[in-house]
Amino acid sequence: MRVREKGDRGVVQSVVLFLGVSVLSGALAAGLAIPFAGLAGYGTEKTNQTLQDLPQELKTAPLAVKSKILAADGSLIANLYEQNRVPVTLAQINPIMRKAIVAIEDDRFYEHGALDAKGTLRAMLRNQSQGSVQQGGSSITQQYVKLSLIEKARTPEEVKAATAETYQRKIAELRYAVAVEKEFTKDQILEKYLNLANFGDGAYGVEAAARHYFSTTAAKLTLPQAAMLAGLVKNPSGYDPTNDMKRAKDRRDTVLGRMQELNVITAKQANDAVKTPVLDPKKIQQVPNGCANSNYPFYCEYVVSKLLDNPAFGKTAKDREHYIKTAGITVKTSLDTKTQAAAQASINQKTKPTDSSVAAITIVQPGTGLVKAMAQSKPYGNNKNETAYNYNVEKSYAGGYGGFQNGSTMKAFTIAAAIQKGFPLNHRINSPHTIDLTRVKYSTCSGTTQSYDSYTPSNSTAAQGDLTMIDAARASTNTYFLQLSKQTGLCPIAQIAGKLGMYDAQSAVKAPLDQVVSMTLGVGYVTPLMLSNAYATFAARGKYCTPQLITSVTSNSGKPITTPGISCNQAISPSVADGVNYVLHQVMEPGGTGGKLKFGPSDLAGKTGTITNNEAVWFAGYSSSLAAASVVADATVPYDNLIGQTLDGKKMSDASGSGTAGPIWQTAMKGALKGLPTTHFAAPNDQTVRGNVKDLPSVAGLSPQDATNTLQQAGFQVTIAPGQVDSQESAGTVAYTSPRRSDGAPDGSLVTLYISNGNGGQQTNNPPSNPATNKPPNLPNCPPWNPKYPNCGGGGR
Questions:
Q1: What range does the domain containing 738 cover?
Q2: How many angstroms separate the CA atoms of 285 and 618, rounded?
Q3: What CA–CA distance (Å, rounded) separates 114 from 128?
Q4: PASTA domain location, by residue (predicted)?
Q5: Whole-model pTM?
Q6: Is residue 555, in this structure, part of any structural domain at all?
Q7: Total domains present in the chain
């Protein structure tokens, strides 16, 4: 007995000492008292020091509210949040809800100050007698302080400190509660509390809770609904009706009983409310969170990745993620629901999720870089026939697959390099079915590169012979473009590709594409997003724009937040782009590899692409309004030939850019362009068509050394083709050149010498002509023209 009496005296003494120190320190306001048991031994000096060390003002974090990602038309793509919350004013909360929460949590809220002294002392003495915390005495103001401190915590250690059952923490809360009561009215505190509190099942704040549980608003809550919500805040998980309906009802009825006891409601109101079901499960509203729940999960995740890269939202990735999910920002994107629907419809029509191959397509707007659509055959998820990989984007983004080799779609950049260098559109090269490029050296930006010890590439189409650039593009003639890329050099091709946003999609640092002999036939790994945007540059007459998905970001208050906007530059001249458009437009005409994909009245241009062993096939094409790139590929290591794999549920007996990837492009673009104005490409100017060339000196019949000297003195580079050809010229002398003398060549370009074996045969300087394609219209019959060399004809040897 003596021990207990001594303990009781210690409690009383401690309380008296604490209250005295509190008053002296100015911390006591309207009945401030210690709310916790076991204060005996907590000295006056220590208490006073703790109080003096505390700040006078509670600094709260902004309310965590959900952010939204929107499509271009304002429709919702996704919600992003840590806490589902919709802040409201007190006037927007039904008074019955306010009365219910006060009745059950702090019935003297409007009568006392920072805390209820009576309730606190009662709880303290009970807890002291039991030797542990058995009863709480926190006021609504104190609860608001505690919730605010937890909300502000960013690390597990901070959360632990904000919830620790220690006197230091309780004293701090009291001091903060005093500050809050001085700064805000009771109604303001109650409003803040009702917006901050956790109401269970992911609902934070009374408005989100009303919407979630009852499909209503806080302003329209009924008495039983308000009582149920008021009962939740004490134990949001334990009293959650979606977890335990009976326990939720018991708690709700307890609140109703307390409201009747306090004469807030009548006995009849209480009895009627008790008979009401806790909730109607059919009215429970879930608020989908995150990109996984979006209709456009891959596009959404790529947008989020761009947000996380923006330092405007925080110093670290963790800070940025927290900000994005709590700041209530509105992110508007370039996604066009009509274009996206067309892309997805094409994927759905041409593929199946169960296919062993994968398909993807991206659609971009030329002149802006706005990414309008992104679709793929494998849906988002972790189950069978689902994937978390986005096959449209680069690997440096966490979900990006990192692209595929792009095959002959690279020829477009070779065409651009040739036109830029001054080659005419009817530039001819003898292009046999197979050429020997064994150990042949090509110039690069840093010197030269050499082909394999054995490299004899062939054409995959019938076109061969004396072809023009347009002939070769229409038939995608490999041997032509391998020779053209030698004449231009690989550096101009690589530079143009780089300016148009092409880089190694597997690289974390946007490494440039490799400059290798076979570059024009496909190199490195590129993505549909990358390729469609590069081709969009041609459509925009050489204006390159960085791919743009985020068009605006506004704060929770509606103020714009600075983010990277549309960024464009003139990457290549309009005349070069016009020339590329003319050449690739012919690919879409009858007889071209893309001829069967042509549709509608607008001008279209495009290029097929197939990589070695048919592991991936492409079609990239555009009008002046939209550009798209589609790919069908094997995305499972080790990569296999597409032939024999399934597409649209059927085994493929063939795989090509035009016949496999092309139909996906065609269907998507047909739907996307529907309703848009008819557009036409600008015609290339006369100099682009004819080329910026000068006459080649006659070297037929000269020794290789003399011919080399003559051409070098005239300003050309020279290389000698391996082996010898049939010619009427003497054996060991020059039979003819490529380019031909009659066609001329750009100043400084590469001229190849073909050496005669002396066996007679074809006319010198005129390789045999056997084009397999129809000659496109409106090309001049006259040889290339240049103001410096006005003679129209040239000719001779």
A1: 690-797
A2: 43
A3: 22
A4: 691-757
A5: 0.85
A6: no
A7: 1
